[in-house]
Predict the structure of Copper-exporting P-type ATPase.
Amino acid sequence: ATPMSVMVGVGKAAEHGILIRQGEALQTSSKLDTIVLDKTGTITEGKPAVIAILCADGQQENTLLQLAASLENGSEHPLAMAVLREAERRDLTLSEATRFEAINGKGVTAIVNGQRYRLGNQRWLESEGINVSLSSDSLTQKGATPLFLASEGTLLGIIGVADRIKADSREAIARLREAGMKVIMITGDIQASADAIAAEAGVDEVMAEVLPEDKANKVKALQQQGRIVAMVGDGINDAPALAQADVGFAIGTGTDVAIESASITLMGGSLHGVADAMEISSATVRNIK
Ligand code: ADP
Ligand code: MG
């Protein structure tokens, strides 16, 4: 690899909104055979919205939403933003929450009006001894994420939050697959919701219910099978996996931590940037030889 041809490739990539921090990443991009894509904010817009509220017996939508928003008030998770925006849209006044805790990959908990509440995924609430008697199937079938709200011991309801896939994700993923890539979607979200989004996006494989700390292990396991792996992500959650991958691509609108952990940043956020980078890489490597 001559430094000159790499420089030309890096410049060409920049014209396409692809910022390459390490010249080596440009050369490795032509050797990739596996692309791991985060779901939320990478395949999808990352701007989820509340689409439905399912109430347990005797509960009311606005009461549940008011509580959920009071719990999420201290969180910066995209799911929290959806809940807070909907509470604001309905002009709900939030209650003070104390002893707030965000539990990575699970949900949030705090004390409101002297009672402990939890908002998060079904598996977590069940592990805390809450009997989940309400079905979230109507939400997960649509690819929405169900957020379960419970007081100490009792399920109060489910808030359904949905995120659209980016307009060009499906096309970009098809392009990657035509280039011979195995395309895998990875997410902390539950299997049913992940499957619905995966079908829409057209990926080869889904890894769902992956805890934040395990995303990097999944990338490592693929590498141990001899695969050359790119990770594409936007979140704090994705940072270790971006660093582990042979090439890490950060979404430019994502968190600073993701951008710092990746060797390439896609300014526009489109997944076409991954295929573009691979093509520029191939051209660069061909010129070298
Ligand atoms: P992703 O990999 O899709 O970015 P995370 O690992 O951040 O997902 O979260 C996994 C799951 O944990 C979410 O789908 C949700 O069920 C639950 N969760 C995480 N953070 C929150 C939160 N602030 N409020 C409610 N639920 C949450
Ligand atoms: Mg994400």
About this structure: Residues 38, 40-42, 233-235 surround magnesium ion (ligand 2) (CB under 6 Å). The chain has two domains: 3-45+165-288, 49-162.
